[in-house]
Amino acid sequence: MSTAHIDVTDHEHLPNDGCETVDHEDHVDHVHGGERHPEALVHAGHADPHSDSDGCETVQHGDHQDHLHDGHRHFQHGDHVHEH
């Protein structure tokens, strides 16, 4: 079986979604429907601001704090959320 690597735009694959995974160069692919789709590190469209009182668990990361959200580490940078 030949499995193609495809950058899909109609859905996303996140860590621990139940799909078989394989390493692909600098990222992880999820095997889905006979195709290999790249894993997304953060939900598409996530742009909610993080603040000190948002209730998220935080961890120190260098010179700033990351907020743990949906299994990902986010850093509020200006008007957008940066994913580590």
What helical percentage do the residues reach? under 10%
Major sheet: arrangement of strands: 1-4-3-2
- End-to-end C-alpha gap: 34 Å
Low-confidence spans: pLDDT under 50, at least 5 residues?
none
Largest sheet: 4 strands, mixed
Question: How many β-strand runs?
Answer: 8
Helix and strand composition category: mainly beta
> How much strand content do the residues show?
over 45%
Summarize the structure.
The protein is mainly β. Helix content is 0%, strand content 45%.
What's the layout of helices and strands?
Blueprint: E1 4-5, E2 20-24, E3 27-32, E4 35-38, E5 57-61, E6 64-69, E7 72-77, E8 80-83
Parallel strand pairs: 1-4
Antiparallel strand pairs: 2-3, 3-4, 5-6, 6-7, 7-8
Walkthrough of the structure:
- This protein is an all-beta fold.
- It is built from no helices and eight strands.
- The strands form two sheets. It has a four-stranded mixed β-sheet with strand order 1-4-3-2, with no helix packed on it.
- The model has no long low-confidence stretch (mean pLDDT 77).
Keyphrases for this structure?
single chain; 84 residues; mainly beta; 4-stranded antiparallel β-sheet; elongated
